[in-house]
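dumping the sequnces here before i forget
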Amino acid sequence: MSKSSWKGRFTVLVLLLFIAAGVGAADAAQVLRIGVVGPESGGGAQLGQGQRRAVQMAVEEINEGKLAGEWTLEVFFEDDEGNPTKSASATNKLIQQSRVNVIIGAIHSSCTLADMVVTSRAGIPQITAGSTGASITQQGNKFIFRTAANDFLQADALVKYARDEFGFKKVATFTAADDYGQSGAKLLREACEKYGVELVAEPTYNNGDKDFKPQLLTIKDRGAQAIFMWGLYTEAALIARQAQQLGVDAQLFGASGMAALKLIELGGEAAQGLLLTQTFLPDSDHPKVRAFVDKYREKFNESPIPHAAQAYDTVHIIADAVRRAGSNDPRKLRDAISSTEGLELVTGDPRFNDDGDDIGKRLLITQIKGDKFEMVKFVKAGE
Amino acid sequence: MQFFLNGLPIGAIYALVALSYSLIYAASGVLNWSQGDMVMLGAYVGFTVFSILKLGFTSALLLAMVAVAFLGVLVQYTILRPLRERKAPPINVVIATLGVAIICRNLALGIWGPDPQILPSPVSSRPFSLAGVSVTPQDILVLSVGITLMLILHFFLKNTREGKALRAVAQDRYAAQLMGIDPERSDAVAFAASAGIGAAAGILVAPIFFVTFNMGASVGLKGFVAAVIGGLGTIPGAIAGGFFLGVVESLAGGLISSGYRDAITFALLIVVLWLKPSGLFLRKNRQKV
Amino acid sequence: MKSIMSSRRGLAAFLLLLTGYLFTPYFVTNLYHLHILNLAGIYTLVVLGLNILSGYTGQVSMGQAGFFAIGTYVSALLMMNWSIPFWSASAMATVMAGLFGAVIGIPAMKLSGPYLVLATVGFGEIVRLVLLNWTPVTKGAAGLVGIPLPTVLGFVVTTEEHFFYLILASLLAGVFIALRIADSKIGRTYRAVREDELAAEAMGVNINRYKISAFIISAMFAGFAGSLFGSFSGVTSPDNFTFDESVGFLCMSVIGGNRSIVGAVIGAFGLTAVSEALRVFQGFRLVIYGGILIFTVIFMPQGIIGLFKRIRGNFSVKETN
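..and the predicted 3d for all of it:
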């Protein structure tokens, strides 16, 4: 063989190698790995599974529509059973083994807090789409973000509405004895003080409790005109029913944690007229909401719960962030997430403050009429 | 007063579950930790019968009882029997039935999903006033069906051959064996009956409290507490314990504190056990000395 | 029952394993795996306590999580509210747990079988509910955050690797103490009580005192483990100490072999590892887990240690007492 053809072949080979390396490197660099932690068994299973479904749907949508620029999303799920220790282990596994760049998790505030210890140590951004415990964003932790609904706004809006529209003077709270419920209880108490409404009873219940009559009887005895509930829909539906059975005719109020169509189904007649705050209304005409709800219903044969909507939005926020950051480096990702703006999503227009809370969330006061939620009032942040 | 009455229908449910525990403990000397999950499965089977097969409440009730009773026998045969043959310590049985509970719970989660389901009630839930307190027809239904079941059980134990055999085995397993009674069969009967009763409790509970895959945990524990308070292994004790627990819970929750309600119940339980180590209705300690 | 480690061969095997284990952080670079090992180590201490209680005196406790919780919360609160250094806080937490061990031990001594089970369950739940509702002190449902890290001779234990050595050292200390107890007069009395309570009583043993002391010791093990756990996790809440946790400890105890010290190690490490390993099965994970429990308990009635003993029994005629 002549020398020149040798050189030729050699050059082609080197060129090919370069191209292969370039393509290979490009492939490897353009994948964003997302880890999701949530309760897929145990008490909060409906929330965790809703989160999972929504995330899956969002990831598919984003990959198909190339909404993350050149980035492909890969997602890994782990079950934390609602147990903080298991949640931390799951987070550890996702970071160390699945090598994720960002974590969505968890739902239970106690689990989110436990996970934060792991993510902050590893320098990985963490977004919780379901935890509302106040302490989560008060740790001075720069890696945590929250796209869950803002409890403070909700409590404030509810009490204000009760006073303005109904003129109630005596009210009661009936809250879950978990972090979500107790955070709500505190905020409701403060709102009552702010608006000059008397709080006559503040009983609590444990998740999974079936009998609420003792507490309801106490509330009835003390003459409460309204009951502010703060918990999930199963217990709320039971409370509504039992209140009706006991002849308690106070107006019922609730927050986004129980805002699911299942509440109407389970609560039946007793749930009619219940007022609650939500970040998204499954029957709203807003194009983004419609698109999301229709697609979810078609795919999973049921209506999405609020946690699902929030999780869905969270993935979109992440996709947008990675597109802007142009890198899946956790720190750059973190910075990109914190500067999110201009996105119009299902639950609002996300904007994160310094603590990591999303202050762009849409807030609606809705009422149960018939078999759906009807919009009553639109609340702007800071009103 | 309202608190007291409120505790009764729940007490009936606890009583039924307590009966299941006591029955199995009396007959085979073991604790079946999956009893609560039988309740859950009964409710789910009933729900499926009702909503998919579109049959009525009574059919749902009967079918569920039979189906879950089968499951009970299955558990006895595949788990209790081998453990007995190997002379395993009682704690092993607890753990084995715990395993059954975990499996039941998560299979239910897989089959029916995590959302609570509702079984429509055959009677209305509108309250009416009875002697100044609020009662619903549902409460009456629960109480009446519950008491009927207890009576049926009582009749069964006293007057049928299987029932008498069960009592013989409960009293003295070895002697009963000598007399030609097959204790394994009695075990199976006990498991079947307990599971069936549990299923019935589940169907009764479903319209009022909804069905979730997780409900077995708390129902089972409460039923167990009730059985022990009354005296584990005795029928009247289980019934009394069940109603006692229901009422105490209601009173404690309403009059003292809702958050600490269960803590108060448990504290009370420990005090009861301290004063009467074998429960309220057992005359002497049933431990074989 | 003599511990496997009392024989010379057993001791040699143990030392060999230990030396290997010492180097684990160098081989296991995956922090997740290290994390699991650390968790298992902490759990082993809890199960050790449980084994002393059930293995030696035959008393069952389904409330071990309660003592674990007391250890965590007391130690964390002492450190956070009064800036008490870790070791003092831990010691006080351990004593506190022991005190509660007496509190439940006293009513428990009259009970046995299912009645004892229930009393201990009740205890565990009461502890959890108090932690949940006593908000001014325990911060209730929100739990405690920012639990301080332990300092050893001026060195702050921060990373997973640091904790590995700390936990290992604690574990060794715990095992050593358990062995001393087993070989001491107390230990022998415990075994006598388990084998035949009536006979022991006839011989003049004050059964009640020994039963209560078993509860106290078992509680102290769990309490100390709890204090480690708090600093290790950094945060805690009542969700960590549910009835399911107590059940988990019990399973570790029984499956490992509840009459043996090595059994505690095997049970804790084994079940923790298995539980994590099953994650690959996603939805079926817990169904399989339940199946494993059933299977183990039927085919290995004395736990995994029992299996070893049977195998060994086939080779040697060495008697156990």
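The interface with chain B takes residues 41-43, 45-46, 48-49, 177, 203-206, 208, 210-211, 213-215, 217-218, 234, 237-238, 241, 244-247, 262, 265-266, 302 of chain A (CB under 8 Å).
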